[in-house]
């Protein structure tokens, strides 16, 4: 019998042969992207590979994700939905607004969303929150993984529009997509500064950590509006 | 204050109380189309932090949060599907064709090599390769069947190759047929790309040729993106490794990316390559822009390009002399 340890609401560590990060499968019997399914008594767990998911890496890096079963999440840069599927597992009674710009990725995301009723797919540019403001309610968490040079600005625009006063922003910053030539440490410093000061009211940075060894040259940031 | 939402239009007072609402019917398709129509809207946006769900319930659109989310889910899904199905534009089709062509080429070469290796054991003197070999095998099978009119007749008679058993012969013949059909597919795709390029990007096709033009669109991601690139980017598309090495370290900047395959660039003498590549890239950029924004064919573009290249050639007829002095200085500096 695999051993299960709860890490936080909806996030578990399942030990079967080795430790796996996992979420409870909202769509039992179905794997989304080839991940392992581990049944434990009545529940089925889906393993979550931190090397394929920045959010997964942040969980293992002890970021306080603070998601509840009925949380509302705005997910910017949903891609094909591998990580979105785990968020959907965690907020089983809530909602995930999954914004993605590339039609090719949206194709996979639609297939995922048609099986999970808490995912609301939105094909739009995360840099233009006005274009989906008629769809998105105030949220408890914005997770952003967009790999754009103006990530800080995108985060700010969305947070001002959609983030609840007590909500959190989780951000994955990819150094290479901001400046291919510069030293990642310098890039991180500059981006964190932008988050704190470049707009009103600014973010308060609660945690900022390198996502090594799961992702190279990525910084995870947890912040809230000041 | 007027507020546009995916389920209708609301009229609210200063504190956000709903005074009046014009709600849409719960028809998923209509709601999805309405939602898509609001994407570009810059007025009557919900204010920051506006609770759409609460408003939907208060105004009577949805009876409960559960119903709200159910409808929202269906509507966003439907809208996204509509967007995805309209995303396959003609330039996207060209990109698929270019990528398919690359795959076909790779496979054809691998299988062709296999065929020549395989058949070589039975008729090593044939001297045939590629499509010719495949045709030969499909026609005759074993070299014993070569007709006396065929120029390879005497070679086939006196070959040192092994005897081809019937079972092997059948296998190799079928294999050769598959290879042949791949060559055919290649031509078919090339014709398709040529025709599509004439319709989608006639100027680009005229300047770059259909294959290079299609490859440029493919590497850029779309005709729109290619049209938005500065010509300096177009000059080095396909040389990203060299470009980033240049940006990160002290490597020289690349003179050309895939536009190297342009006849004007690859026939230029080495000391003019960079200059010619720059001229070609600038006209390619213009061509892509005309194709994307106006679509009219401008035959003067290629003439201007040819004139420009001629000018570059006449102005720089000889390779530049290496400057002894500056070279010496550089060495000195390095020694420090």
UniProtKB/TrEMBL annotation, chain A:
The keyword Methyltransferase applies. GO terms for molecular function: histone H2AQ104 methyltransferase activity; RNA binding; rRNA methyltransferase activity. SUPFAM superfamilies: S-adenosyl-L-methionine-dependent methyltransferases (SSF53335). It comes from the Archaea. S-adenosyl-L-methionine binds at residues 82-83, 100-101, 125-126, 145-148. GO terms for biological process: box C/D sno(s)RNA 3'-end processing; tRNA processing. InterPro entries: Fibrillarin, Fibrillarin_CS, SAM-dependent_MTases_sf. The keyword Cell inner membrane does not apply. Keywords: Methyltransferase, RNA-binding, rRNA processing, Transferase, tRNA processing. It is an enzyme of class 2 (transferase). Its EC number is 2.1.1.-. Involved in pre-rRNA and tRNA processing. Utilizes the methyl donor S-adenosyl-L-methionine to catalyze the site-specific 2'-hydroxyl methylation of ribose moieties in rRNA and tRNA. Site specificity is provided by a guide RNA that base pairs with the substrate. Methylation occurs at a characteristic distance from the sequence involved in base pairing with the guide RNA. Interacts with nop5. Component of box C/D small ribonucleoprotein (sRNP) particles that contain rpl7ae, FlpA and nop5, plus a guide RNA. Belongs to the methyltransferase superfamily. Fibrillarin family. NCBIfam families: PRK04266.1-2, PRK04266.1-4. This is Fibrillarin-like rRNA/tRNA 2'-O-methyltransferase. The lineage of its organism: Archaea, Methanobacteriati, Methanobacteriota, Stenosarchaea group, Methanomicrobia.
UniProtKB/TrEMBL annotation, chain B:
Residues 315-336 are annotated as: Disordered. Coiled coil: none annotated. Pfam families: Nop (PF01798). Residues 200-314 form the Nop domain. One of its GO terms (molecular function) is snoRNA binding. InterPro entries: Nop56/Nop58, Nop_C, Nop_dom, Nop_dom_sf, NOSIC. GO terms for cellular component: box C/D methylation guide snoRNP complex. SUPFAM superfamilies: Nop domain (SSF89124). Belongs to the NOP5/NOP56 family. This is rRNA biogenesis protein. It comes from Methanosarcina spelaei.
């Amino acid at each position: 019998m695999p051993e299960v340890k709860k890490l936080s609401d909806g996030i578990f560590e399942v030990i079967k042969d080795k430790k796996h990060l996992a979420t409870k499968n909202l769509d039992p019997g179905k794997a989304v992207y080839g991940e392992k399914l581990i049944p434990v008594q009545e529940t089925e767990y889906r393993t979550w590979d931190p090397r394929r998911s920045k959010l997964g890496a942040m969980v293992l890096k002890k970021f306080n994700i603070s998601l509840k079963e009925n949380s509302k999440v705005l997910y910017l840069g949903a891609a094909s939905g591998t990580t979105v599927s785990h968020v959907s597992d965690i907020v089983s009674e809530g909602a995930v607004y999954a914004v993605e710009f590339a039609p090719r990725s949206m194709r996979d995301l639609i297939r995922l969303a048609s099986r999970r009723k808490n995912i609301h797919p939105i094909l739009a540019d995360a840099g233009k929150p006005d274009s989906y403001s008629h769809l998105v309610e105030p949220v408890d968490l914005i997770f952003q993984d967009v790999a754009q040079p103006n990530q800080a600005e995108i985060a700010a625009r969305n947070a001002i529009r959609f983030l609840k006063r007590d909500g959190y922003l989780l951000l994955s910053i990819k150094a290479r997509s901001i400046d291919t030539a510069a030293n990642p440490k310098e890039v991180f410093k500059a981006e964190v500064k932008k988050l704190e000061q470049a707009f009103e009211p600014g973010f308060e940075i609660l945690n900022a950590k390198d996502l090594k060894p799961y992702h190279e040259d990525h910084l995870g940031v947890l912040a809230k509006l000041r | 204050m007027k507020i546009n939402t995916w389920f209708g239009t609301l009229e609210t007072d200063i504190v956000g109380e709903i005074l009046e609402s014009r709600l849409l019917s719960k028809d998923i398709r209509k709601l999805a189309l309405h939602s898509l129509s609001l994407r570009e809207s810059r007025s009557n946006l919900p204010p920051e932090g506006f609770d759409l769900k609460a408003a939907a319930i208060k105004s009577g659109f949805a009876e409960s949060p559960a119903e709200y989310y159910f409808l929202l889910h269906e509507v966003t899904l439907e809208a996204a599907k509509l967007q995805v199905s309209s995303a396959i534009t003609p330039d996207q089709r060209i990109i698929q064709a270019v990528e398919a062509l690359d795959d076909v080429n790779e496979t054809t070469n691998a299988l062709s090599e296999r065929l020549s290796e395989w058949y070589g054991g039975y008729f090593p003197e044939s001297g045939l390769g590629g499509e010719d070999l495949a045709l030969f095998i499909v026609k005759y099978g074993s070299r014993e069947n070569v007709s006396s009119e065929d120029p390879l007749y005497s070679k086939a008679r006196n070959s040192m190759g092994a005897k081809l058993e019937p079972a092997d012969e059948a296998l190799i013949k079928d294999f050769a047929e598959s290879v042949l059909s791949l060559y055919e597919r290649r031509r078919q795709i090339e014709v398709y790309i040529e025709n599509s390029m004439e319709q989608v990007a006639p100027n680009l096709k005229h300047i770059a040729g259909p294959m290079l033009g299609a490859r440029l669109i493919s590497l850029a991601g779309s005709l729109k993106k290619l049209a938005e690139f500065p010509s300096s980017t177009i000059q080095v598309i396909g040389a990203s490794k060299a470009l980033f090495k240049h940006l990160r370290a002290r490597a020289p900047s690349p003179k050309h990316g895939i536009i190297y395959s342009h006849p004007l660039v690859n026939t230029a003498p080495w000391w003019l390559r960079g200059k010619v590549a720059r001229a070609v890239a600038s006209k390619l950029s213009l061509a892509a822009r005309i194709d994307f924004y106006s679509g009219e064919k401008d035959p003067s573009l290629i003439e201007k390009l040819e004139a420009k290249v001629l000018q570059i050639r006449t102005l720089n007829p000889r390779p530049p002399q290496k400057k002894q002095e500056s070279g010496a200085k550089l060495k000195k500096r390095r020694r420090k």
